[in-house]
Design brief:
4 helices; two-stranded antiparallel ribbon
């Protein structure tokens, strides 16, 4: 048995209990990892701005890379529409609206 500590000191008991309940839920779903390990994974996850250029370079249509005109269009959309809102967010935090 190893003891793990919370990533922060809580201001009140209710906050601490809420954190503990969330940790228990993770454990029940077998998704639990130590808090420090999760924090390190969050820091190392790529943002949309870091990921998008490589994703477009790897994208293939019928085995062929995207045309230069298409890449230019996508770059413009990323710069004008997506990056202002989502550019610095980690990919795993971006979800479709429900």
């Amino acid at each position: 048995m190893r003891r793990y500590v919370a990533p922060t000191t809580f201001e009140n008991r209710m906050d601490a209990e809420a954190w503990l309940i969330a940790e228990r839920r993770l454990a029940e779903r077998d998704d639990w990892t130590p808090p420090a390990m999760r924090a390190a994974a969050r820091r190392s996850a790529p943002t949309l701005r870091e990921y998008a250029p490589g994703a477009m370079a790897r994208r293939r249509v019928r085995g062929e890379p995207l045309w230069q005109r298409t890449l230019k269009l996508y770059d413009g959309l990323l710069e004008r529409v997506l990056y202002p809102t989502f550019g610095e967010r980690q990919l795993r935090t971006i979800r479709a609206p429900t």
